[in-house]
Amino acid sequence: MEKIQVALLGLGTVGKGVYRTLQKLNKRIEEKLGVSIEVTTILVKHPEKHRNFEGNHLITTDFQHILDNPEIKLVLEAIVGVEPAYSYLAKSIKAKKHVITANKAMFAHHGKELLALAEDYHVQVGFEATTAGGIPIIQTIRKLLHVNQIRQVTAILNGTSNYILTEMREKKIPFKQALYQAQQLGYAELDPTNDIEGFDAFFKLMILSELIFHEQPAWSNVDRIGIKDITLRELLEQQECGKRIKHLASLQLIDEQIRASIIPVSIPATHPLYSIEGVDNGIVLETDLVGRIILAGPGAGAFPTASAMLEDLAIILRSLHQSTITVSQELINSTT
């Protein structure tokens, strides 16, 4: 059985989730894809933090080691921040390695450049994990909606903020207590700014805008209001009226202008995102032919993100396998 070597960049919550999921599901991958996946290198910045990690023998601080290894065919990136993630992936593509990323901030800034670079070097880029956790929204738009035009997107794109609002309302607790619970459960970082101020949802919305409309709105024109000033009293008042406050991301094309916002909105029980609770994400696509499409699923935590990255891995491996079959058939045909 063919063995595919991969490198993992980053060993935080998501990186560990990817590594452990691969170890757990390798047999399933072998059965479904006919190849064995082996993580042979893990790049970290501070190896001393990972002495007790079960795969610490794979750890390196030298990215060049990954570039120089021709046996590494795929690079899985789970680093926080725009740099050095972008530089690492650009160099990986130039080394003709396929790349898969979960880095929404980096991809919102540089996704277009990476996709163009990948086309030049004939490799693939997987970025499902950048947006909406375990919901396959990227593949739905890229692979399934060829004829339909998407007119509008309304979504809950951050599981942490959705969890906080749900806990506040259901348990009648203040914002700070709900945030602390989210941090204890690993849904929120020690510095929760990206989640509660809407930056995380903003980057995801920009990725969707690029994918759907082939451009992004001017970032300075996007309304972004976080959830930290929402009070328990406001949530309960809205509940008495049969409504719920949700942190909604909205995207639409009006008069050839892309309008986008990430703001708290009070929605009625008839709204398709009303029942999206806890760490779940939900996305409503309004299309011109099929009409409304609703997708929902886990949006926070290591394993939904790892799931999205591994689905991208499977898609790339299937594509490579199909390419091999096609080339082999062409060689056979040329000799007959």
Radius of gyration: 21 Å
Bin the helical content.
40-55%
CATH topology of the largest domain: Rossmann fold
Return the CATH architecture of the largest domain: 3-Layer(aba) Sandwich
* Amino-to-carboxy terminus distance: 29 Å
Count of DSSP H/I helices: 11
SSE string, helices as H and strands as E: EHEEHEHEHEHEHHHHEHEEEEH
Largest sheet: 6 strands, parallel
**What's the pLDDT, averaged over the residues?**
92
Overall structural class, as computed from helix and strand content, comes to alpha/beta
Strand order of the largest sheet: 3-2-1-4-5-6
Structural domains: how many: 2
CATH superfamily of the largest domain: NAD(P)-binding Rossmann-like Domain
Unreliable sequence segments? 323-336
How would you describe this protein?
The chain is α/β, with parallel strands linked by helices and 336 residues long. It has two domains: 2-132 and 302-334, Rossmann fold (3-Layer(aba) Sandwich), CATH 3.40.50; 137-298, 2-Layer Sandwich (Dihydrodipicolinate Reductase, domain 2). It contains eleven helices and twelve strands. The strands form two sheets. A six-stranded parallel β-sheet has the order 3-2-1-4-5-6, with helices on both faces. A six-stranded mixed β-sheet has the order 8-10-9-7-11-12. Helix 1 runs parallel beside helix 11 and helix 4 runs parallel beside helix 9. The radius of gyration is 21 Å and the shape is globular. The relative contact order is 0.15. The model is unreliable at 323-336 (pLDDT under 50).
